[in-house]
Amino acid sequence: MYLTAGLHRSMQRHPDKIATVTGTRRQTYRQLVDRVARTASALRALGLQPGERLSVLALNSDRMVELLLAGAWAGLVINPVNTRWTAAEVAYALNDCGASALAVDDGLMATAQAMTAPLPALRHRLYIGEAQTPAGYLPLEAQVAAAVPMEDVRSAPDTLAAIVYTGGTTGFPKGVMLSHGNLWASLLGRMAEVPNPPHYVTLLTSPMFHVAGLGRMLGQTIVGGTCVTVPSFQPQQVVEIMAREGVNDLVIVPSMLQMLLDTPGFDPQGLPKLERILWGAAPITLPLLRRALAAFPQVDFIHVYGMTETSAAVSTLPISRDPAFLESERIRSAGPAGLSAEIRIADAEGHELPAGTHGEILVRGPAVMMGYWGREEDTRKALAGGWLHTGDGGVMDEHGYLYVIDRIKDMVITGGENVYPAEVESTITSHPAVSMCAVIGLPHEKWGEAVHAVVVLKPGMQATAEELATHCRERISGYKCPKSYEFRDKLPLTAAGKVQKTELRKTAQASAGGQA
């Protein structure tokens, strides 16, 4: 199947149902399909051909929904860009995937205009905002208004649909290649286990540059559900919109859930239509989960586990309110393998391990990525033996329930965002006073994990935490910057000269009382 198949189904079944809500702007599926077909036509009129990359640097909105769907309708490869990246990081991704066109909204125009790196493949800069079109940009809305709707390309399942960037242990983002079939398999597998009724009004809090946000939007188009968009997660605004629009479905990360519950004057009874909350992307503390269950007695809570390379969720765990379950070890599980995935725990050679044994989580199935864009060796390693080697450590019990224990590659997940220590360590050690640095994640009640840096200064040199914080903020995105710094005379090393991050975590947590 292809990404826009859901639009055709919803056009047949629910043409006059509300498809998207952004502020006071609403459109039906009939209107959405028309705009998607005309936007696709406008893109093709610019000379963009099937297979070329369309990068979108924008906050969640109905216009972004239209553009991503229009890219697929036209046969282009969509590349939703991380809105939290710096200009240099955005330029890297555009260069890496060879983007032919870049669409930017008002909220990210400053970032786009700050890009100084040459972008030889980029032929078109498109403006999708509401203000005056900046110099050097083409107003896409004018092109759409004049366009004649085109027929859907209806790409084959094995056609590349999207390049979604994720971090890498080298410090450089990798472009995950997802086919139409990958994303479709993920959607159907999830919907088979987690029903998606057509009456659901979903609030897209997860940005659509994440597979969680992109997948949730696509899932709604299949059943004819409504997508309500917000540009960013502002708790008070989110509560008001949820109440006004009758939102009954929410996909969030634990830090968002905590911020929602901590909103001054927040009354869960003001959201009587809320039926379901799915969370993933970061660990949740049991106190927070129990607090949420108590606050929303009518809501179903579901834990999902997955990653960009698996087109989102590969396992789900509905949270039972049975007291025995709430006190059991299983509440910490990510659930059994989903209907579109096989999961096993393996040793370093890829051999399956018996139940209860710690190893690496491997995944296989139709939702697993095609590979990494332009990185054949990384792809070969990641998909060795026909299984995706996730880099996550875990255990599976005798009933097939998965427990995610740690991240073998030392990735830190803070507020649902992936932070790769190598990139942060490289940034910190570029400071003239720093000799060595190790970056780890420490448990944090609000963010799931907080980035923590252990620094060794050069002999005779001085640097404060404030100086290093400024140094980082000038070079990498804010969510990647350490929340805390620790200075040491040396780092604990293995016989092979590798930093013993396990020891660093133990001592750092002990000194911080387990919190960053």
Characterization of the model:
The protein is α/β, with parallel strands linked by helices. It folds into 3 domains: 5-232, Rossmann fold (3-Layer(aba) Sandwich); 302-407, Roll (Luciferase, domain 3); 412-512, GMP Synthetase, Chain A, domain 3. Helix content is 31%, strand content 26%. The strands form 6 sheets. Strands 2-1-11-10-12-13-14-15 form an 8-stranded mixed sheet. Strands 4-3-5-6-7 form a 5-stranded parallel sheet. It has a 4-stranded antiparallel sheet with strand order 16-17-19-20, with no helix packed on it. Helix 1 (5-13) packs parallel to helix 8 (211-223) and helix 7 packs across helix 8 (211-223). The longest helix has 17 residues, at 29-45. 48% of the residues are buried. The model has no long low-confidence stretch (mean pLDDT 92).
Relative helix content: 25-40%
Coarse morphology = globular
Q: Radius of gyration from the CA trace?
A: 23 Å
The percent range for strand residues is: 25-35%
List low-pLDDT spans: none
What number of domains? Answer: 3
Mean pLDDT, as a whole number?
A: 92
The major pleated sheet works out as: 8 strands, mixed
From the structure provided, what is the oligomeric state, counting identical versus distinct chains? single chain
CATH superfamily of the largest domain: ANL, N-terminal domain
Strand order of the largest sheet: 2-1-11-10-12-13-14-15
Please state the second-level CATH architecture of the largest domain.
Answer: 3-Layer(aba) Sandwich
E-strand count? 25
Reading off the top of the CATH hierarchy, the class of the largest domain is best stated as: Alpha Beta
Contiguous helical run count: 16
Could you give the distance between the termini? 45 Å
- Computed structural class: alpha/beta
Looking at CATH, which topology of the largest domain would you report?
Rossmann fold
InterPro entries: AMP-bd_C, AMP-bd_C_sf, AMP-binding_CS, AMP-dep_synth/lig_dom, ANL_N_sf, ATP-dep_AMP-bd_enzyme
Protein name: Long-chain-fatty-acid--CoA ligase
Family: Belongs to the ATP-dependent AMP-binding enzyme family.
GO molecular function, one term: acid-thiol ligase activity
